């Protein structure tokens, strides 16, 4: 790691960190309601390398009559038992690839599926169906229960999204949005210090800005690696006591693809520095999408003094 300080100050310490915070990825669940229409196309299942996809059916599956074409070298052998079929790709397949899966239920009912992948448009990462419940009888108790759970999940996600939007609809978030668009001249902040850091093929220019009763940190990130750079989360808390503090954060894009530059902006109000009657240093952490703590910044209360 190379560090090039453009200015020196005791108010800010910026380090590239090797600390990792692990977090399990969310399970992707889906329901497929099969149509009785004979012209209905085969349903698609989306897979990703080394991620198991479990199909659950209402009736038991016939292992002898369940098969996938051309799986050798691409998938582990199918696991078929009871009412389940398990797919596990050995590696990622491309969205244009197609593998035909024919699941036969006890009694002779044949259910065709197309196995492929779905590429995320912004960061290139693939999501896989990890649990898929397949129903033919939409009035069965299992189908009704699964549909209810799916509706409740969508309602919860929508409610959380609205609550998050309401919480982030503040002046500080508006200022952070302007800074993330590289428009500091439209904000009350003025430049204070600047650092240049390099880790691998990713370059970080860290700008510290001072405002009336507020401080801001802007990360200008240039990515020359083959894979996209994406922020997972930011954290702000007191250096002593580890108390979480409020702040506003905005990015100008979801992922910084290879050969491009993006911004992450954080705005901190002077009230965040207060811990009772004492003003304390704050620690700002930036985590990469894979849980790697890429940067941390120590902020001094002097930044928000008028």
Describe this structure in words.
The chain is mainly beta and 306 residues long. It is 12% helix and 39% strand. It is built from 2 helices and 21 strands. It has a 6-stranded antiparallel beta sheet. A 5-stranded mixed beta sheet has the order 3-11-5-8-7, covered by helices on one side. Strand 16 and strand 17 form a beta hairpin. It is elongated.
Structure summary:
With 306 residues, the protein is mostly beta strands. It is 12% helix and 39% strand. The radius of gyration is 25 Å and the shape is elongated.
- Helical content band: 10-25%
Strand order of the largest sheet: 1-12-13-14-17-16
| Mean of residue pLDDT values | 82
| Unreliable residue runs | 1-13, 17-26
Largest sheet: 6 strands, antiparallel
Work out the number of β strands: 21
- Taken in chain order, the helices and strands follow as EEEEEEEEEEEHHEEEEEEEEEE
Strand-residue proportion = 35-45%
How many separate helices?
2
Defining key terms:
elongated; 306 residues; 12% helix; mainly beta
Secondary structure: elements and pairs:
Elements: E1 2-5, E2 12-16, E3 29-33, E4 43-46, E5 53-56, E6 67-68, E7 79-81, E8 84-87, E9 99-104, E10 110-116, E11 131-135, H1 141-167, H2 171-180, E12 190-199, E13 202-211, E14 214-223, E15 231-238, E16 248-251, E17 260-269, E18 274-275, E19 278-279, E20 282-288, E21 293-299
Parallel strand pairs: 3-11, 4-10, 5-11
Antiparallel strand pairs: 1-12, 2-21, 5-8, 6-9, 7-8, 9-10, 12-13, 13-14, 14-17, 15-20, 16-17, 18-19, 20-21
